[in-house]
Design brief:
elongated; single chain; 2 domains; 71% helix
């Protein structure tokens, strides 16, 4: 090092009285100069207090509010921490879900075909959340979570439950606010198709990336909707008729059994 900071420069830097240019220059110099770092006046009490606080945070990390809430519901600390460490895309999906539900609900009240739009949008919302809840590329902490004992199907199931809880709640509330909804059945007409698609996504995710599996299932739902809309004399709402609901229930039971078998053998 061909030059060193003067005593006055070190004093002004340590007491935060140096101008911005001098402070930035001093910081850049101190990064590489051991001699000047040793001459820098320090507050030993402040350093000890700062290190103690840092070690307290590192050695005894405090749980987040969500972790504490999950703990009060009876979940173990490790399980609560894995659920709380949700991907950033999952949080973005929650915001997007509220916006989509609010928009389609307003359209259902304002335009003639708004009810149809709402009816075919709601079942896809839980599927979109599941597709963004787990996997490499959507979860920044996936490489860390993948080496835990909960990695794989177990963590996928946990994340799926974390997605379905808010999704089913908000979708049900939005459906209850639809025009001419008078019974509980009319508020959950979308539930069986939505759960069947989620189960299908979980099964297909064994061979495909979960987001790709969600896209395939969602694309199939849109194709099915388009077929009913283009068929002469066909009513798209037949996909939610009692007979169709029986078919959705049967498909859900079969798919759920396959998912459960996969979890047991994982």
């Amino acid at each position: 090092m061909s030059w060193h900071l003067t005593h006055d420069q070190l004093h002004r830097y340590a007491t935060h009285t140096a101008d911005d240019v001098t402070a930035m220059s001093a910081e850049a110099h101190l990064t590489h100069c051991t001699h000047c770092r040793d001459r820098l006046p320090t507050d030993e009490a402040w350093l000890e207090h700062s290190w103690a606080n840092l070690l307290d945070v590192v050695d005894r990390p405090r749980p987040s509010p969500l972790e504490r809430l999950l703990g009060t519901l009876g979940l173990r600390e490790g399980t609560a921490k894995l659920l709380a460490a949700t991907p950033a895309l999952y949080r973005a999906w929650l915001v997007a879900m509220v916006i989509v539900l609010a928009t389609t609900l307003i359209l259902a009240h304002e335009i003639p075909r708004g009810t149809l739009l709402f009816s075919f949008t709601v079942p896809v919302i839980p599927l979109a959340g599941v597709a963004l809840a787990y996997g490499r590329g959507v979860d920044p902490a996936h490489s860390l979570a993948s080496v835990t004992p909960w990695a794989g199907p177990r963590l996928l199931l946990l994340r799926t439950c974390a997605v379905l809880a808010p999704a089913l709640t908000l979708c049900t509330v939005a459906s209850a606010l639809m025009p001419s909804v008078a019974t509980a059945y009319e508020a959950v007409f979308w539930l069986l198709p939505a759960l069947a698609m989620v189960a299908g996504c979980l099964i297909l995710g064994r061979w495909l990336h979960l987001s790709v599996a969600g896209g395939v299932i969602g694309g199939g739902w849109l194709l099915l909707m388009a077929m009913f809309a283009l068929m002469e004399g066909a009513d798209p709402f037949q996909l939610f008729s009692p007979l169709a609901q029986a078919g959705w229930a049967t498909a859900l039971a079969l798919l759920a059994a396959i998912v459960a078998l996969r979890m047991r053998t994982a």
